[in-house]
Amino acid sequence: MPDWKSAQDVTTISFSGTPAGLFSGCHTTPRRQFVIVLSGQMEIGLGDGSKHVFGLGDACLVEDITIHGRTTATHGDHPRVTCTISLANQ
């Protein structure tokens, strides 16, 4: 388990915008990454049926790179802007 208080090696940082109402079906992530919500809201749906909503300034570590996957949606009536920080292999 990494020490999150220490600097982390990253490979890329990217920014993206998605329109209100966008839904992406069950998928895995290509690499471990942090996703930070800069505006709007992001909803993550897990395999157990639970849904989690992240808003302005929230960060989540996405690391479902193999089997389970998740859904992703822009929650609410406003577009979403996120910053994705891809972690180097750990």
**How many domains would you count in the coordinates?**
1
**CATH homologous superfamily title:** Jelly Rolls
Per the CATH scheme, the topology name is Jelly Rolls
Strand portion: over 45%
What is the oligomer described by this structure?
A: single chain
Low-confidence stretches: none
Query: What is the element string, with H for helices and E for strands?
Result: EEEEEEEE
Radius of gyration: 13 Å
Instruction: Strand order, main sheet: write it out.
Output: 1-8-3-6
**What CATH architecture do you see?**
Sandwich
Topology record:
Layout: E1 10-18, E2 23-27, E3 33-39, E4 41-45, E5 51-54, E6 59-62, E7 70-75, E8 80-87
Describe the structure using short key phrases.
single chain, 90 residues, Jelly Rolls, 4-stranded antiparallel beta sheet
Structure description:
Strand 4 (41-45) and strand 5 form a beta hairpin. It is globular and about 35 Å long. The protein has no helices and eight strands. Helices cover 0% and strands 53% of the residues. The chain has a single domain (10-87), classed as Jelly Rolls (Sandwich), CATH 2.60.120. It starts with 9 loop residues before the first strand and ends with a strand. With 90 residues, the protein is an all-beta fold. The chain has a four-stranded antiparallel beta sheet, with no helix packed on it. Strands 2-7-4-5 form a four-stranded antiparallel beta sheet, with no helix packed on it. The model has no long low-confidence stretch (mean pLDDT 88). It has strands spanning 10-18, 23-27, 33-39, 41-45, 51-54, 59-62, 70-75, 80-87.
